[in-house]
Amino acid sequence: MRIFLTLLFILTNIVAHSQDRVNKISGIVTSYDSPLARVNIAIKGSSDGIQTDAKGKYEIDARPRDILVFSYVGMNTQEIIIEDVTSVLNIDMIPRVEELDEVVVEQKKKEGQQGLALDYAKKKSIINTGYGFVDAEKAGYSMSYVDGADLNSSAVDIASALIGKIPGLRRGEGGTVFLRGGGGSLSNPKPPIFEIDGTIFTDVPTFLDIDSIDRVAVIAGLGGTTKYGNIAAGGVIVINTKSRGAIVRREKGSNKAYDQVKLRDNNFDERSVQGNFKREPPKYILEMKKAATADDAMSQFDTQKKLYGSSPYFYLAAADFFQENWASSGKQDLVINEMKEEYANNSNVLKALAYKYEERNNLDAALKTYIEIFKKRPSYSQSYRDLANMYTKTGNYKKAASLYVRYQKSRSLDTVTTALEGIDAVIDTEFSNLLARYGKELAAGATNSEMNEYQGIRTIFEWNNSEAEFDLQFVNPEKTYFIWSHTNEKEQARIIDEKTKGYTSEQFLIDQSKPGEWMINLKYYGNKSYDPTIMKVTTYYNYGLATQRSEVKVFRLELKNVNQKLISLQNR
Prior knowledge:
Layout: H1 2-20, E1 23-31, E2 34-35, E3 40-43, E4 49-51, E5 57-62, E6 67-71, E7 78-81, E8 91-92, H2 101-119, E9 126-129, E10 132-135, E11 143-147, H3 158-162, E12 169-171, E13 177-179, E14 193-196, E15 199-201, E16 213-219, H4 222-228, E17 236-241, H5 242-245, H6 283-288, H7 294-308, H8 312-325, H9 331-342, H10 347-359, H11 363-376, H12 381-393, H13 397-410, H14 422-442, E18 456-463, E19 469-475, E20 481-486, H15 492-501, E21 505-510, E22 516-526, E23 533-543, E24 549-557, E25 563-571
Parallel strand pairs: 1-8, 14-17
Antiparallel strand pairs: 1-2, 1-5, 3-4, 3-6, 6-7, 9-10, 11-16, 12-13, 14-15, 16-17, 18-21, 18-23, 19-20, 19-22, 22-25, 23-24
Helix pairs in contact: 7-8, 8-9, 10-11, 11-12, 12-13, 12-14, 13-14
């Protein structure tokens, strides 16, 4: 108990210390690569603020968890949550598009009929009239509607079925009906007309089978005469039968309502991808490649360090060079040790290093690195997941399970009835996999079982910089694609969730319904700093089965606005 309280005290002080530290943040604000002067920059909730200078540059002090607000007339306001490593924020302001009223009205009119036609099958307030589709809930005149399913199918006739369902509808003499507010006088009211699937009837359609009615709408007063003329002075009762519904758009080959959310016109064009993911080696690596021996290469490293040593990614690239060309020399370890001394407090750098260790299957070194990150970021969800995942990989299943349980309890996650997203979904998936595969090691008498909920390929993408923006394009064997966007412009709520909980990862599950080759492409947009982003992609085959296996690939993202092939997967 004493040990637990001591650990809790240490972690509490670490969090408090990290939040009290002040970051000096600088950068350039641009729009379409041109600097913006007099952009307002302020900490949210504070009255203090600054403006960018004539070259778009700024410098401001902020603490981790503060929110910097960038605003400018005619531009979309941007809000950025500050983290412990935030020091450079280069912001690209996006113009706020404001169309002229008459253009907007015309655009809405054109899209409105298409949208209403597509929504007709699943929204009963939409009525198909001889003058187009109308949504009774949004009509610019008095209009009410009734779902055909609510009508009494055992009624004597249509008039009997509608009375009581349509407000103000009453019987007249000779089988006629009248609407309250209809034309004429009290002594000589005018009856409504009926429109049935586009055909006008002046008498009550007693011949109509009530079971055939899909929906009914009532247009009373001026709205009727505006659309139908004087014949509709008594109002209009519009009836759409179920046969009318057959002509509206539905999903191909089914009777299901047309799904507007479903991605269409997404046939993949090979020309949209510019080759496999690759980059030319940096200049300093090209110089080091000229060396004839490991010692000569190390001497060249020291020379290049004078020019490029201010970037931790110089050290990472140099360590990769020695690993690939002079692994037995141990020079890569010397380079890594130098980097760790210089950037020991930068969690982004340590995370990139851990990715590299995993790629080389140096799991012990990766575990030690993730422990260091956990100490620096004990309040980050990603810290829990990364450390638990590494404990699983190194065979310490009980420690992994303990971390997963601690996280789920701290977040009060209901993993049974709640649809989990983001890091919560990642942790739930991996914890379930841990229990299924290593239940025997975790509890006496337990037996291992396979995960029945999901079997197939699981890919998880992780990136070391929370500001990284990119699109992932998944191309299935039928050559259609889906894009998952990770940009502040398109998915601001998602990025706020990441910053709030502290995570930088997403998983994707590919089941066995579409066997064959899957291609995953990436378009990188940057990360608001001058440093590259390091991305780790872990692919699990036969996920949830006893034959589960994985492979790790690490990518350095620098080239912007180019769609490149990242990996391909064989789904069998």
